[in-house]
Amino acid sequence: MALKMDAAALNAFLGTDFPQLTGQFAVEHADEELLIARLHVSESHLRPGGTVSGPSMFALADVAIYTAILSNIGPVGLAVTTNASIDFMRKPEAGRDLLAHCRLLKLGRVLAVGEAMIFSDGQEKPVARCSMTYSIPPR
């Protein structure tokens, strides 16, 4: 199945439909198998102890899986998360951006399920794993 939105189109969509995210997240790569999204880590994403906060990692996973779905179905702004689970496995490094490697496990007419593995940039072991289910509105 050919992508309906590439990385540039997804970033443009985020910029217009979610301007509050500008400068925080970017889709770096999107193809039929994998989407990679980046969280540009700043002081606002850190918690005491010099690590990236759980809510920041969750937001990255949410953006990654959401944009992976849109890359396949087009700009459907009202697709919403209906279920989410995240496992925090390692302390992310405060001085590094985070990357989410996302794969869609199921893409149906009304539900989509995706998984994101989150890594500190340049590190090979994941810091978190997240799975999410989205509801896709009727078109």
TrEMBL record:
- In Pfam terms, one family for this protein is 4HBT
Superkingdom assignment: Bacteria
Asked if the keyword Hydrolase belongs to this entry, the reply reads yes
Q: Taking every annotated instance into account, which residue ranges of this chain make up the domain Thioesterase? A: 49-125
Which first-to-last residue range defines the signal peptide?
Answer: none
What GO MF annotations does this protein's record show? acyl-CoA hydrolase activity
Is Hydrolase one of the keywords? Answer: yes
Extract the SUPFAM superfamilies matched here.
Answer: Thioesterase/thiol ester dehydrase-isomerase (SSF54637)
- Keyword terms: Hydrolase
This protein is called PaaI family thioesterase
